[in-house]
Design goal:
Blueprint: H1 5-24, H2 40-50, E1 55-56, E2 60-63, E3 67-70, E4 74-80, E5 90-97, E6 104-109, E7 118-123, E8 129-137, E9 142-153
Parallel strand pairs: 1-9, 3-9
Antiparallel strand pairs: 2-4, 4-7, 5-6, 5-8, 8-9
Length: about 160
């Protein structure tokens, strides 16, 4: 028996609401309990970026939703704790995706004149995955942070 369109929409809305409530309560998603292996494109981009340099954590705050209803537009804000002086500032912020057809989502150039070590944008995500951020500091050191985003409706499925 086919349900009317309104009932189907209500059912989908209810399923999304239950998913959001489960995430907010900290309930794990069993379907995503096993981490996915990063793509070959990500591995290549990561190796080129890091070049064997050590990675530190603690200076980057990555603000991205844990649950994205659609991967077509996911808001993201990266804040790096840096005084943005000539001696200590963020030079580059790299945003990478472990599962998108193209791993490098964005690269932002900053200088002491930027005033803040902060960028805000919207990104596309092909599927549930980790988003990784690397900040290159003025002394050449690297800071990193990552977050998993559960995507309900995939985006960027075409690599071209």
């Amino acid at each position: 028996m086919d349900l009317p369109a309104t009932t189907r929409r209500q059912a989908m809305s209810g399923a999304v609401a239950v998913s959001i409530a489960a995430l907010a309560a900290g309930a794990p998603f069993e379907a995503h309990s096993e981490p996915t292996k990063p793509s070959a494109q990500f591995d290549t981009a990561w190796a080129e970026l890091v070049q064997g340099r050590p990675l530190a954590t603690g200076r980057i705050k990555l603000d991205i939703p844990r649950l994205a209803e659609s991967g077509n537009s996911v808001s993201l804000k990266v804040t790096v704790d840096a005084p943005m002086t000539e001696a200590d500032h963020v030079r580059l912020i790299h945003i990478l995706s472990e599962q998108n057809p193209i791993a490098t989502i964005g690269r932002f150039h900053l200088s002491p004149r930027s005033g803040l070590g902060e960028v805000e944008t919207s990104i596309r995500l092909a599927t549930t995955q980790n988003v990784r951020v690397v900040a290159e500091m003025s002394d050449g050191s690297l800071q990193t942070a990552s977050a998993e985003v559960v995507v309900l409706i995939a985006a960027c499925l075409d690599p071209g």
